[in-house]
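Give me structure tokens for this 255-residue protein.
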Amino acid sequence: MSRRREPYLIPGYHPVCEALSRPGCGVMEVWIAGDRRSKRARTVLSLAEDGDVPIRSRTAGELDDRFPDTAHQGFAAVVQAPEYADLEELVEASLKTPGRGLLVAADHITDEGNLGALIRTAAFFGAAGLVIPRDRAAGLGERVAKRSAGASLLLPVAREVNLVRALDRLDQAGFWIIGAAGEAAADVYGFDWVRDTVLVVGSEDRGLAPNVRAHCHEIVAIPGSGRVASLNVAVAAGAILSEIVRQRMRAGGSL
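Here you go.
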């Protein structure tokens, strides 16, 4: 059962504007530190007024204390954390355009910064949602919202007790389960991505677990120079998702 979490804060001018501009983000109030006559402040004030969102004044010191080591730029949004999505909802949303379905699954990513970056990357390239495991993995929290610059409010995320069973369900729904691993013989550019696809990326330390790998129809790699052994998970996902978008655009129709 989905459970709504406590509200949390998202810092930064652009994330605040993005949250205010998109229906359903659940912005409860906006904090502004500094001169409200600045161009950025006027933009935030206008967006907040359009959405009937209250504005609260805060000092720069208060935001510094609340967001250490974060460039808040004098703005923050108090948002209602999103509920986790149901896997069946993701399947239905992704298969609205047959042959163009796209989901991302993450195999036990523990770093919240990596998960946030992956969420923003998946949202940017048009994935219908992300599937993550419940245990031994990062979840939707304030740090993930910060790192995703608010994208975690927009991209549906299903958190499953057992990732392998979730992949089985997606297989039954007609998706191709494609894993990413650096040592794979097949490369991302030779694979035909114009099909309903679940891209599975591995954890930071061990990559794809053996049981997850065994449930993939194909394993693909990103060709590189060999100077470094691997890429950050969000960067790797971005490279593959970019190729998926390229192929689908070249084939015509929607992504």
